[in-house]
Amino acid sequence: MKKRFSNIAFLLVLIFVPVIATFGFSACSCSDKPDPAPPANVAVVTINRESASVPEYETITLAATAENTDEPITWTSSDESVATVDGGVVYGVKAGSAAITASAGGASATCAVTVTETINVPVIAFNGDISLEEGQIFSDEIKVKFNGEDVTDEATIEVAGAGETASVCTVQNDADGKVVFTAGKVGTAEFIVAVTARGIYVSKNVTVRVSEANVNVFPDGDEVTVTENGYAATLSTTTDNGKKTEIPLTFTAVKGDNVTEKANIAWDLSSPAYDPSVATVSGSGGEYVVRTAGAGKTKLVGAYVSGTKKIPVEIEVTVERTLKNLTIETVVEANGLATLPIHEAISETIVDVTLRGESVFDSTDGGVINLKKDRLPKKASELGPVSFVVSTENYDYVCETEMYSLVIGSKADLDAFAEAARANGDVKNTGVLDGYFVMDADVSYNGTFVSVTDTDEIYEAASKNGGGWMTGSAKYGFRGVFDGRGHNIEGLTVRARSNDSSSGGFVGYLNDAGVVKNVSFTDAGLYENSGFICSLGGGTVENVNITFAKIGVGNATKDLYHDSNNPRKMGAFFTFFATESATVRNCLVDAIGAEIHYEINAARSETNVCLGTGAKNTDNFVVITDVARIASESGATTTALSYEEIASNESVRSAFEEFDKSFWQIAGNMLLPKSVAGKIDLTANIAFADVPPVLYGGNEAKIVADTRYAYVTAAKLPEGVTFANGILTVGETAESGSVTLTVTSLLNGSTATATISTVKARKVTVNHARTDIEKRAEEIDLSFAGEYLGDSAEVFLGSVKIGGGAVTNGKVPFDGSKFGNETGEKTLTVYSETGGTVNCFDMKIRAVTMIIRSASDLDTVRIGQRNIDAKESIGGLYVLGNDIDLGGVKIGSNLNYSADTVPVYESDFGFVGTFEGGDHTISNFTVGKGGLFGHVGKGAVISGFKVKNVTYSGDYLTALFGVTVSDATIDNIGISVANYYADAGSAAGIIASRYMKNCTISGVEIKAETCDVDSIFGWSVTNNKFVGVTTAIVKSFGRLGYLDDGKTQEIKSLENVTVTLSQR
Fold it and tell me: At a CB cut-off of 8 Å and minimum separation 6, what does 511 contact?
């Protein structure tokens, strides 16, 4: 039995008709006989159906047509309590029957409609499970649907409680017709929703669950903020700049309508999240204070207690060090010392240094911070201006500075640049070189610079990384930056790294992202097959000056005569191959007076020189050379064939005006890098540097000014005298006379003149033996000339006067240093007057670096510690001038090696010159570590002498010639060993100690009849060629050497090597 509660229920009353009647009628008037045809022009109405059926509360649609009338069709129902009709739509009201009639123009038609009882029931749409907190209100509208139709307005709805519910929840309706549930105490209340619609009764149970009200606790004020992770507060380590080291903290608790201010919080000071070394919280009675203790992060953890509930309270506190901005002028070198100077404003102990959020701090040492080098950036894109954050207890010092891979100010720095760029990109494995390198001083290099990389190396790396080495400038090569910052590098000669047929350059291969800029090279040199900066790739070369002294050394040019391949041309930039991104901008190449070894493939009319560039993208690029063919193929936007042309050619000077004046300077008529111009007195009057007062027939003289940037012109020349490209030549048949020369400064237009007398000379032939002349020679013996030698004589090497003066005992003063680095066969020309006739005769000599005559002279060919540290080999031609008895001294060097400095295992390091023994003997000495030469490298030739009574000391790495002997020729050497103390652990050998590889050995005889020898040739003996018979007589021996450094296989025999045991 249903129990009703009038005090908590409401009733919606609809008009309801309880009586249902059933009616029956004929659907349409019709008989068994067919209807007669209607008269003409009489209206006729027809319905598409004679009878139909429809359930209660549903509809069907009838269709009617009218003929011979314009009146609209009207619809009627015979009993609207059963069925209604509107425009042919019939609605079933209640079960029964009704006639539906359509009329128009006085005519009509009917359809018998039967309304059947419905099979549907009402549906109550309302939430049956409601959850509320104490005091909370829920309101919603009850909806009633019948067969999908909203019948709420015609339904009777009642809501009543089931049981004692008033203390838990009450219910009532509001002015909007919604049911309102109001929560009381904690508990559960059951309600019934009763609905009567269209005569059908349904009901639904509704459960209301009331729970204890939530308590919300929140901090007061604006010191604590809301973040996505909860509450947070920020303090500072100091009060500088208005920062706070403490803040007050109070809370408000809200439970329903109850509000508690200064709510008491029970703080958990033992929570693992709470770090009192960062911040502390203290106080009572709902009033608290948070104070700074040190930089970092901590969490204040507590709870507010309300009844049985504990509401957690958490605030993340960040204590920030006070920021101070500093500027540090000293540049940090990521690949160098990796140190950061400590700014004078920093007084507290440094606890950390970060870069872009990562700690790079290692230690402090005096006034500098040592940074962790392995954590510093390697890529050029990550270098340049940077901000280090130096942290102390209370401050974060944001130190603005610059960081580069290396700062270059010396020859050693340039060598280190190459190694750093290679390491930064791991070129062997990736084909990439990287880093940001800047110069802070001019560098006097005066030596051969091995390319940072070259085509052979990139080819090998590309084969590991998908190929495309030649066109892959987006992937391979130097992608870093080399910024000379306006400085000059003097005397740098570039050669390829792998071999002389490979193509290299200063950086060798330039990546699309690579940049070489703002640098000048003077007195520059270049080997064949290479470009001075790069031979191929993409990227940008900008504001680069190259003043060449020598281009090519006489090596073959790869593919010059190969019709299907590009020749490996030599020149400045991208001379072998340039990709689409290769760009040359604001560059000057000056080869006036340079020695150029070029050749022409006549079949395809192509030379081996591209002095400028093969790049398509050029902007303000000038090439100056006195070789017209080379100028025409240079790829420059502007060319000139002489300094004189620059002075007279407006188009060249106009091109100079377009250059970047931050790097370049126009001095008079010449464009110069500011670093070069700064070393020249631009206002000084021009003068000749060295003009001979007399020039003899059959001789020539190079006429030079006291500055490079000048040009010389000659007045009318006597017959038989010519002047071209700075060379004044007096023919053998030229009569005596004079020549007037004028030199003009390109820098300021000043001029100077000089007159040279030309003297006819008689050419005579004097037979003599070839003489070795060393660089340190200060006199030369001409006594062989006899009758053709007068009181004085002058000696020339080509156009250079190399000796001359009064003849004393057949000798005249001589300056062997003018040979420079050149050695080998030469012809000197000597002029001397006798009886009023000037005689001219040739003297055949061989220029040698030194004639070895003593123990101290031998020291000059030995690699020492200085050579290792500076990575400097020893070259030249050395001749043993006599037997040398060393009197029992120990020969060798105390060599120390480190990972940063050791080049000794590179084949081209060491003694790389020629040592000719002249069949002399070096005797009576003990050999130690490194022996006579220390290290012997690629191209060395050691030949023609004997070693007698030598003792091997037993020191680690003891050998006669060197620790390593690589790619050398050893010929006609006799070695007589008195004592041999080396054992199996000393890595010693008769010839080499650690390595002997890729050598050609012939005519070597070793006699050690009383000695037990460990390794005859050295520790690791690989890929050597023995030509002719090499013999060794020993008491016993362990091996000729090992096949590799790992001692995996002993070598007991070699072709053309005979070892005899003396005991047999």
Answer: 432, 433, 473, 474, 475, 476, 477, 478, 479, 537, 538, 539
CA angle 889, 1016, 941 (to 5 degrees): 70
* Ramachandran region, residue 642 (left: φ > 0; alpha: ψ -120 to 50; beta: rest): beta
Pick the closest to residue 86 from 75, 97, 96 (CA basis). Answer: 75
Cα separation values, 851 from 564, 771, 815, 817, 918, Å: 49, 12, 16, 14, 11
Nearest residue to 628 (alpha-carbon basis) of 609, 653, 648, 603: 609
pTM: 0.66
Task: Write down the pLDDT at residue 10.
Answer: 32
pLDDT at 34: 52
Q: Alpha-carbon distance 102 to 1005, whole Å? A: 139
Q: How far apart are CA 229 and CA 217, in angstroms?
A: 16
Q: What is the amino acid identity at position 268?
A: D
End-to-end CA distance of the chain: 133
Dihedral sign computed on CA atoms, order 499, 500, 506, 508: negative
> Coil, helix or strand for 422?
helix
At 119, which helix (H) or strand (E)?
none
C-alpha–C-alpha distance, residues 55 and 95, integer Å:
8
Q: List pLDDT tens digits, range 477-519.
A: 999 999 999 999 999 999 999 888 899 999 999 999 999 999 9
CA nearest 941: which of 961, 967, 969? 969
What DSSP string describes 272-337? TT--TTTEEEEEETTEEEEEE-SSEEEEEEEEEEETTEEEEEEEEEEEEPEEEEEE--SPEETTTT
Contact 283, 249 (CB under 8 A): yes
Phi/psi zone of residue 136: left (φ > 0), alpha (ψ -120 to 50 degrees), beta? Answer: beta
Gap between the Cα atoms of 613 and 535, Å rounded: 9
Task: Round to whole Å and give the CA distance between 421 and 680.
Answer: 33
User: Tens of pLDDT along 839-892?
Assistant: 999 999 999 999 999 999 999 999 998 888 888 899 999 999 999 999 999 998
**Torsion angle (degrees, nearest 10) of CA 1030, 1031, 1034, 1037:** 40
Residue 1015: name the closest of 999, 1049, 992, 1048 by CA.
Answer: 992
Please state whether beta strands 638-640 and 617-624 pair in parallel, antiparallel, or not at all (unpaired). Answer: parallel
> How many whole angstroms separate alpha carbon 686 and alpha carbon 709?
10
Whether the CB-CB separation of 410 and 443 falls below 8 Å is answered with: yes
DSSP string, 668-712: TTEEEEHHHHTTS-TTSPP-BS---SEEETTEEEE--BSSSSEEE
- The three-class DSSP label of residue 100 is strand
Residue 732's nearest CA partner among 756, 754, 764, 702 is: 764
Rounding to the nearest 10 degrees, give the CA dihedral for residues 212, 218, 220, 221: -140
Segments of 928-961 assigned E as strands: 941-952
Rounded to whole angstroms, what are the CA distances from 324 to 344, 368, 941, 1050? Answer: 13, 19, 65, 67
Amino acid type, 629: R
- Please give the backbone phi and psi of residue 201, each rounded to the nearest 5 degrees, phi first: -100, 130
